[in-house]
């Protein structure tokens, strides 16, 4: 018998309740429907939790905190490890859930499960390696000690583009450090987060240590940001919403982790290896259908290699297939909503109107499908260079000198990821140094890993996720000065 679209092996992982203080609960008012972005049919529903339920989750996190914080890191790590193993055991179900609610091609969803689960695996071990210090005292008879303490109750607000990975990046380090957490997934993609919480319960995460509240961000957000109990907000999403949340957190002086917009540049220099440049552009631009905050949004190609690059890149783009994420051979699934399609259309038409040359792809055929498209000779002030397109539309802009390239790349208020392709060590070193960006991919578009610090400069955000730096974001340093020795 053939499988129904998105049908899970383990039906219990398709949940319609929120997870508050260790209990699966209904909300108040109408539930929120979750739609498949390809068929536009409703595939699930989740509760609209009330303000009181958000407070209840925060209170439970506060009650659970002292014991969780004092558990040996090894035991917290063991729970994260079990959680990781359960997610991997149910990898296919998670991939189906992600494709069902987000639309991305199933192969991309599988890659997200591996990547997302990797944060649990990494922090399961990292929990035990977080060391304090003893600082040589400037006077006799004293010992200056520095301990790392978990900062307390944390909240997470996550976006729809990586429904699992954007959550595990926060939950992994928070719980490893000894913090407790209440998470609010995006309204469009809450199902993955609920399945993830279910496996957390199975893995032995104590009640209250982790809750998932679903519903309206305008109801949930203010309770989270206004609560004096909450010591940190970790947010991934757009810069305007991040700025607004930061403002709401100011009166209670919360720690902030903000992963915001990107508008990443990719610089391809004359001496780049052509195959490497094309591969870098393919991954940096089209991974996740371009719906990623590290997606190369502006591709600057030096004039000497430009025509060859456009030919080679154009032939690759022309072979890409957009369609139903559940179908074999699909590279790009449907876009998340109608607004996303409208933005891609607007950016494409604007680039063409300003003299851009269509090299591959073209207009959207209808529904939520955006055809992978490449435009050459894009004007340097076209809309697609100024705003994140968040879709499978690539525009190439020429430049003359290395200095010009760097100046164009840095001409943005954002600075999350940047990419460069060159074979010259001196160019790589110089441009790598001069790019105003938290992350630089050199001859690669694949930069994300739990082992490295991910985060931005300028208006792309604050703080880092991944690596031991990501753990430190959930810790306070306590200095103990011991006299009379
Ligand atoms: P995107 O463009 O990725 O949808 P958003 O910043 O709008 O970016 O959304 C990212 C996350 O922030 C989602 O979980 C969304 O529900 C949440 N969000 C949006 N607006 C608010 C708000 N006013 N208060 C709290 N959370 C919000």
Can you describe what's shown?
It is a single chain. The protein has 485 residues and is α/β, with parallel strands linked by helices. Helices cover 39% and strands 21% of the residues. The chain has helices spanning 51-70, 73-89, 91-102, 106-126, 165-177, 191-203, 217-226, 239-249, 274-286, 306-319, 338-353, 383-386, 402-410, 425-434, 467-472, and strands at 18-20, 23-25, 32-35, 42-46, 133-135, 143-150, 153-157, 180-184, 210-212, 230-236, 255-259, 264-268, 296-302, 357-360, 373-376, 393-399, 414-415, 417-421, 439-442, 457-458, 461-462, 475-482. It folds into two domains: 11-260 and 460-480, Aldehyde Dehydrogenase, Chain A, domain 1 (3-Layer(aba) Sandwich); 264-449, Aldehyde Dehydrogenase, Chain A, domain 2 (3-Layer(aba) Sandwich). It is globular. The protein has 15 helices and 22 strands. The strands form six sheets. A seven-stranded mixed sheet has the order 14-15-16-13-12-18-19, sandwiched between helices. Strands 9-8-7-10-11-21 form a six-stranded mixed sheet, with helices on both faces. The protein has a three-stranded antiparallel sheet with strand order 5-6-22, with no helix packed on it. It starts with 17 loop residues before the first strand and ends with a strand. Helix 2 (73-89) packs antiparallel against helix 4 and helix 7 packs parallel to helix 8 (239-249).
